[in-house]
Amino acid sequence: MFIFMNPTARNVSTQKNWKGLRAPWLGTKNVWNIFYKLKLLSKSSFEKTQKIKPEEWTRGFANSIYSELKSKKVFVTNLAKCTQLDARPLKNTIFKNYLDLMFQEIALINPQNIISFGNQISSILLGKSVSVSDYVGTKNEVLKIRNKMFRVYPTHYPVGQGRRNMTLAAQRIKKVLKS
C-alpha cells in the first residue's frame, strides 16, 4: 500500500462529470514515474500516462492502470480525501480529520507493507515526528490498528517538489519489496 498526500484538482476523477473510478492521480503525469521505476507499471501503460492529456483519460484506461497495480498487490491511496486547486501543502489538521478513515482503509486492505511518502504524512500516520531521511534500507515503524500490527516504511516524497528524491524513494522501496 502506498500512501500519498492529497490529489490536486488536476486529477480527472475529482471532476463532477467523471463517471469512472475515483482514485488518486488519474490524469496526472509525475506520480506514475515511481511505479514505472519500480517495475510495477508496464512500459506501455506508463508511456500512455505521459502522453495523454488529463481530459483524454478514459474510465477504461483508469481501470486498467489500477488493475495493473492491483495485480502486483499494490494499492494506492491518499491520506486526505479532498482536493485543492494548487499544490499548496495542507495543514496537519486537515490530514488528521481523515486519519480514522485511513485506519479503516488499512484494516480493510490488510497490507503486508505500507509505504508512507514524506515527513508530514508519515508523522501524522504514525502519531509522532518523523524525518524520512532517518529511514534507510528496511528500517520501519509499526502501526497498531485494531490489535493488528502493520509495518510502515516512511519514504521520501517522489512527486512535485519531491521529484529530486525520486531515486532515493525508488531505492528504498526496492529494498522493502525484496524483504
Description:
The chain is of the alpha/beta class and 179 residues long. It has one domain: Uracil-DNA Glycosylase, subunit E (3-Layer(aba) Sandwich). It is built from seven helices and five strands, in the order E-H-H-H-E-H-H-E-H-E-E-H. It has helices at residues 32-37, 43-51, 59-71, 92-97, 99-109, 119-126, 166-178, and strands at residues 2-4, 76-78, 113-117, 141-145, 148-155. The chain has a five-stranded mixed sheet. Strand 4 and strand 5 form a beta hairpin. The longest helix has 13 residues, at 59-71. The protein is globular, with a radius of gyration of 16 Å. The two termini are 15 Å apart. 30% of the residues are buried. The model has no long low-confidence stretch (mean pLDDT 89).
Sequence-ordered SSE layout with sheet pairings:
Blueprint: E1 2-4, H1 32-37, H2 43-51, H3 59-71, E2 76-78, H4 92-97, H5 99-109, E3 113-117, H6 119-126, E4 141-145, E5 148-155, H7 166-178
Parallel strand pairs: 1-2, 1-3, 3-5
Antiparallel strand pairs: 4-5
